[in-house]
Amino acid sequence: MQFVLLSALASLIQGGAAASGADWRSRSIYQVFTDRFARTDGSTTYPCDVKNNIYCGGTWKGIQNKLDYIKNLGFTAVWISPVTAQVTEAYHGYYQTDLYSVNNNFGSANDLKSLAAALHAKGMYLMVDVVPNHMGWAGCHDTVNFQKFAHFNKPEHYHSYCELADMSNQTEVEKCWIGNCNMTMPDLKTEDPHVASEMNRWIKTLVANYSIDGLRIDSVKNVNADFFPPWCQSAGVFCMGEVSEGRPGYTYPYQQYMDSVLDYPLYYAIKRVFQRESPMSDLVVNLAACTQDTDAGCRDASLLGTFFENHDNARFPAATQDLSLVKNALAFTIMSDGIPILYQGQEQHFSGGDDPGCREALWSSGYSTTTPLYAHTALLNQLRNHISATHPAYLTYQTRVLTYTADVIQLRKDAIRSIFTNQGAQGGSYTLSTQGMEFSKGETVVDVLTCSEYVAGEKGDVDVRMERGEPRVLVGKGGLGGSGICGVD
Ligand SMILES: *[C@@H]1O[C@H](CO)[C@@H](O)[C@H](O)[C@H]1NC(C)=O
Ligand SMILES: *[C@@H]1O[C@H](CO)[C@@H](O)[C@H](O)[C@H]1NC(C)=O
Ligand SMILES: *[C@@H]1O[C@H](CO)[C@@H](O)[C@H](O)[C@H]1NC(C)=O
């Protein structure tokens, strides 16, 4: 007992209380693509042609200097690109050569420590992207000289080469190598006890050295799943894995091996629905896919990472420019059961296509804080931050579908009721009667997106003004007390 108390005290004194799932649940995450967020010189004109696939000069110092841009969007955590040393021109960070050195294109080890300290001083968390599956080699698989790697420098640390040809064969997915003759990714033999224990040692010191609060784990489906529980335990912080697969039955069971996975099944559904490729019923099916008590394998929907853009996929506006549809997808994401994640540039309505098109330099926007989507994001984060602080049940309340048609859905998540539509800007203006919202009779209800007020009728429903396909986010006025939202103090 005394020992436990002493070590708790010691960790408090060091200022490092490791962040768990419970600590992350209330957070919202801004995804920074380190090479493309901000340069140390703060330039807004430095050229960056995504097609060149070379460094554009973003740094950790650059991020640190622009933290208020992120904080004022209401985010409480920042996910950055992998930090390890890389082959030449691996500006994204996924072709590492030395796990124990940092990528000096992004700055020094002290710069990274300084970024972590600056985030913590603002009450924000640092999430670092990590890659346990592979190293990087600029050449064909048969030219790899393992001795060139700083660690894991012997052939027996890797699976023997095979080409990953059949993505439906899980053995191949885990044991074969990704890449081609321009860039090969020697595949670490993570089921080997020596490799696993070295990996455990590495992640523990990485987290400690840089005061990391959470991990985004790359290429999870390419690694044997039972590698992760001891690894995440060594890390001692929240783990969110990338399982880039839309089938719930494939993706969600990975949550049995780590705190969280990126919600790729919901990502595809959000895109289909708000790009008008499928009706609202598609969302309904997907909202039910991760429940705590089914065979789906999900442990906790409130810890999944909810997103609809990232650095690997064409941006939403690449296909659908309509701002009202973007606003619906964005509001749905921030108000969902999981931990919301926005990728840099969403707030600027960037529209880049498939990788590398979606990796535009954010500085080309001039870091404008007056765009419609900047304001929309900031308001929704402010609301989520306020409600999760004042309504203890909100974060773990599982969203209920109240009613839906092909193009309008009404949802309730505890204190918040929302209406989403994929009618788009041509959707016109009309009055919508809600169903099952269960506000109190006579209660004043505020749509936080317009500050319009309604009075709940006999059954606790309201008649809401819908306009040009915009979403609606409704809260009892009393629930906004102290938030400053819509002037409610
Ligand atoms: C899957 O791949 C492994 C390794 O290449 C192979 O031995 C096995 O036969 C494959 N299984 C199927 C069902 O194709
Ligand atoms: C390798 O790189 C060259 C030059 O950039 C490119 O033309 C070629 O398509 C690449 N090959 C593969 C397999 O990606
Ligand atoms: C962390 O710091 C220690 C002490 O300087 C060093 O030995 C270790 O290699 C570092 N680990 C990483 C992953 O940077």
UniProtKB/TrEMBL annotation:
<protein>
    <recommendedName>
        <fullName>alpha-amylase</fullName>
        <ecNumber>3.2.1.1</ecNumber>
    </recommendedName>
</protein>
<feature type="signal peptide">
    <location>
        <begin position="1"/>
        <end position="18"/>
    </location>
</feature>
<feature type="active site" description="Nucleophile">
    <location>
        <position position="218"/>
    </location>
</feature>
<feature type="binding site">
    <location>
        <position position="359"/>
    </location>
    <ligand>
        <name>substrate</name>
    </ligand>
</feature>
<feature type="binding site">
    <location>
        <position position="134"/>
    </location>
    <ligand>
        <name>substrate</name>
    </ligand>
</feature>
<feature type="disulfide bond">
    <location>
        <begin position="162"/>
        <end position="176"/>
    </location>
</feature>
<dbReference type="Pfam" id="PF00128">
    <property type="entry name" value="Alpha-amylase"/>
</dbReference>
<keyword id="KW-0378">Hydrolase</keyword>
<feature type="binding site">
    <location>
        <position position="216"/>
    </location>
    <ligand>
        <name>substrate</name>
    </ligand>
</feature>
<comment type="similarity">
    <text>Belongs to the glycosyl hydrolase 13 family.</text>
</comment>
<keyword id="KW-0732">Signal</keyword>
<keyword id="KW-0479">Metal-binding</keyword>
<dbReference type="GO" id="GO:0016052">
    <property type="term" value="P:carbohydrate catabolic process"/>
</dbReference>
<dbReference type="InterPro" id="IPR013777">
    <property type="entry name" value="A-amylase-like"/>
</dbReference>
<feature type="active site" description="Proton donor">
    <location>
        <position position="242"/>
    </location>
</feature>
<feature type="binding site">
    <location>
        <position position="312"/>
    </location>
    <ligand>
        <name>substrate</name>
    </ligand>
</feature>
<keyword id="KW-1015">Disulfide bond</keyword>
<dbReference type="InterPro" id="IPR013780">
    <property type="entry name" value="Glyco_hydro_b"/>
</dbReference>
<feature type="binding site">
    <location>
        <position position="246"/>
    </location>
    <ligand>
        <name>substrate</name>
    </ligand>
</feature>
<dbReference type="GO" id="GO:0005509">
    <property type="term" value="F:calcium ion binding"/>
</dbReference>
<feature type="disulfide bond">
    <location>
        <begin position="48"/>
        <end position="56"/>
    </location>
</feature>
<feature type="domain" description="Glycosyl hydrolase family 13 catalytic">
    <location>
        <begin position="31"/>
        <end position="384"/>
    </location>
</feature>
<dbReference type="GO" id="GO:0004556">
    <property type="term" value="F:alpha-amylase activity"/>
</dbReference>
<keyword id="KW-0326">Glycosidase</keyword>
<dbReference type="InterPro" id="IPR006047">
    <property type="entry name" value="GH13_cat_dom"/>
</dbReference>
<feature type="site" description="Transition state stabilizer">
    <location>
        <position position="312"/>
    </location>
</feature>
<keyword id="KW-0119">Carbohydrate metabolism</keyword>
<keyword id="KW-0106">Calcium</keyword>
<dbReference type="InterPro" id="IPR017853">
    <property type="entry name" value="GH"/>
</dbReference>
<feature type="disulfide bond">
    <location>
        <begin position="451"/>
        <end position="486"/>
    </location>
</feature>
